[in-house]
Amino acid sequence: MDKIERLKIFCLVADKQSFAQAALQLGLPRSNVTYAIQSLEKEYEVRLFYRTTRKVALTHEGSLFYEEAVRLVAQLKELNRFKTHVRSQEGKISIGMPKRLATQLLIPNLLAFYQRYPKVKVLINGSDDFSNLIEQQLDCVVRVGQVQDEYLLIRPITQTKIWTLASPQYLAEFGEPKSFDELQQHFAVDYHVAKNYREMSELAFRDHRIDIPYRLLIENTEAYIHAGLAGIGMIQIPEFDAVPYVQQGKLQRLFVDIPSLELPVNILLTDRQYRPKYFQDFIDWLDDLLKKRL
């Protein structure tokens, strides 16, 4: 008989004020109930009950012990409920990812996952800021860019190229730059999530980083793309995000012959040994979705 079972017996004896009724309700010999109480008293060196032939009553110390025991047994029930939810594939998944990936890719495809796990809740932290898996208590993160968190598990997805783009309206006004030297007569849309204002923007390529003037500073991806579409300046976004705009003629790719900057796309996880099956299946499903679409 483990300690939790003995605590449950103790609580029942206290509620019934009777060893005999507790034994009857539990379907145990009275001697087992007596042993459970005596072993607790011996372990904690405290007298829990006043016993007479007619009545059982808690001592003062027993009353304090009862309050703690009830709380502990209630917490155990909550833990068992969690185990039941895991087995029944009911729970929640919290994921952090760039806002554009969340709105353009994950959300439109979530119904396919819900068909398999209708009781699982997905909580999306769609932010352009750097998502911290530990501090924000996220189950997983999709991150575009280099990973320096050595304590996280990295599940590589792909490499994505960063395209340089401008709208037809912008190119009609300023012309298409043919070399980096011409960029000082052009404008970029500056993008920075940390509110770090600077005098010049920067275009990044695989082997070059070029300073370029800007007229507008943006702090979220959606506004950044709309500024590019509006002809305010050149922008740089991942290939998977750029392709639809290029195909529709809304943006034109520049510097096609210059090797583009490439960034890794990874799913990051904590090193957690016991993962619910619905969560592991979600990661496998998301992995497959990202590889197909990116």
TrEMBL record:
Domain HTH lysR-type: from-to ranges: 1-59
Keyword Transcription belongs to the record: yes
Annotated keywords: DNA-binding, Transcription, Transcription regulation
Gene Ontology molecular-function annotations: DNA-binding transcription factor activity; sequence-specific DNA binding
Transmembrane helix as UniProt keyword: no
Family annotation (InterPro entries): LysR-type_TF_proteobact-type (IPR058163), LysR_HTH_N (IPR000847), LysR_subst-bd (IPR005119), WH-like_DNA-bd_sf (IPR036388), WH_DNA-bd_sf (IPR036390)
GO BP annotations, alphabetical order: DNA-templated transcription
Family: Belongs to the LysR transcriptional regulatory family.
Listed name of the protein: LysR family transcriptional regulator
Organism: Acinetobacter halotolerans
